């Protein structure tokens, strides 16, 4: 067991282009504040996130850092999750992205970097264990902190990645409208905790934190310490009804609709022909996939757990 006391060796990974290039400025401030606190700090960032991941993997394998701090949006939180899940090394997230769902869920201030760093330093003595999702697909394993999905939301995310206008969060909304014009309900085959279940739905989200997509409350009240997945189904419906339900996700009021179902599971396998898999907003492969909750897989430094 690590001793979370005295001088901690921090590894820092920064996504400099997150939040419209805000990440570089926030990252520099984080490194400066951590260094001023008297803790050794090594900047593991690279020319790109692939290089940064290699630097961090090497540092963790060599036991040369005691904690990993990632700076950016949900993409960098996803990277940190995959670096730290299943390992006895705590992770902290300093928000600097367009989407900061992971940081918000963990109680980190979204616009006050100095306060975020203070909370990290304050929380060093009491890191918390939380659940993570182990996503198995095509012989590979990807870890997710927030969610894994294969449905309309994943298709819209895929389209958003290939359109150049508009910039920022509006790009996803434009992508949703473009995708909806030709979208048809998806036929899913699944096995939920050993029990087969087939269904048609607009989307299927396997959630851990209950929030994704820049503040969407897909599963209000979800817990990262209950050793369960929360599975959201938005069942087959007309495009018109879907257009009225989807915006309600931001306030969590969609759950009262009769065509919305939420259930808990420990493990679910999903087959959906031609569907991309998105994990924490990042493309990770194509369906089929299996999602399994791993209790206490991730050690987090955060105030809200």
Largest sheet: 11 strands, antiparallel
State Rg: 19 Å
CATH fold annotation of the largest domain: Tumour Suppressor Smad4
N- and C-termini, Cα separation: 20 Å
The backbone outline, from C-alpha atoms, is: globular
CATH architecture of the largest domain: Sandwich
Mean pLDDT, as a whole number?
A: 93
CATH class of the largest domain: Mainly Beta
Order of helices and strands: EHEHEHEHHEEEHHEEEHEEEEE
Number of helices: 8
Share in helix = 25-40%
Helix/strand structural class: alpha+beta
Counting DSSP E segments of at least 2 residues, the number of strands comes to 15
Uncertain stretches of 5 or more adjacent residues: none
In short:
This protein has helices spanning 18-36, 49-61, 74-84, 101-105, 113-122, 152-160, 170-180, 239-245; strands spanning 10-14, 41-43, 67-72, 91-95, 128-137, 140-144, 147-149, 186-192, 195-207, 229-235, 260-265, 267-271, 276-279, 282-286, 289-300.
Structure write-up:
- The chain is built from eight helices and 15 strands.
- The protein is of the alpha+beta class.
- Strands 5, 6, 7, 8, 9, 10, 11, 12, 13, 14 and 15 form an eleven-stranded antiparallel beta sheet that branches. A four-stranded parallel beta sheet has the order 2-1-3-4, sandwiched between helices.
- A hairpin with a 2-residue loop joins strand 13 and strand 14.
- Helix 1 crosses helix 5 and helix 6 packs across helix 7.
- It is globular.
- The protein starts with 9 loop residues before the first strand and ends in a 5-residue tail after the last strand.
């Amino acid at each position: 067991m690590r001793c979370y006391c005295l001088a901690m060796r921090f590894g820092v990974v920064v996504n400099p282009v997150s939040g419209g290039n805000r990440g570089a400025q926030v990252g520099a401030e984080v490194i400066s504040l951590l260094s001023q606190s008297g803790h050794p700090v090594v900047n593991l960032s690279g020319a790109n996130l692939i290089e940064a991941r290699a630097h961090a993997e090497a540092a963790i394998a060599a036991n040369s850092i005691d904690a990993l701090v990632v700076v950016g949006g949900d993409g960098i939180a996803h990277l940190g999750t995959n670096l730290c899940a299943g390992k006895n090394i705590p992770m902290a997230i300093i928000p600097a992205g367009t989407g900061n769902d992971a940081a918000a869920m963990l109680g980190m201030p979204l616009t006050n970097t100095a306060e975020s760093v203070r909370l990290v330093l304050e929380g060093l003595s009491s890191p918390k264990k939380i659940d993570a999702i182990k996503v198995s697909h095509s012989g590979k394993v990807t870890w997710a902190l927030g969610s894994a999905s294969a449905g309309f939301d994943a298709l819209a995310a895929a389209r958003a990645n290939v359109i150049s206008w508009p910039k920022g969060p509006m790009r996803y909304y434009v992508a949703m409208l473009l995708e909806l014009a030709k979208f048809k309900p998806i036929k899913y085959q699944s096995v939920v905790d050993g029990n087969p279940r087939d269904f048609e739905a607009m989307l299927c989200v396997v959630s851990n934190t209950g929030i994704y997509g820049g503040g969407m409350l897909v599963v209000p009240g979800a817990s990262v310490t209950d050793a369960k997945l929360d599975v959201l189904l938005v069942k087959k419906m007309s495009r018109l009804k879907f257009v009225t339900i989807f915006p309600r996700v931001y306030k969590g009021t969609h759950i009262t609709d009769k065509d919305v179902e939420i259930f808990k599971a420990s493990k679910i396998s999903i087959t959906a022909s031609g569907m991309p898999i998105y994990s924490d907003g990042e493309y990770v492969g194509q369906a089929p996939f299996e999602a399994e909750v791993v209790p206490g897989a991730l050690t987090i430094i955060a105030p809200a757990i």
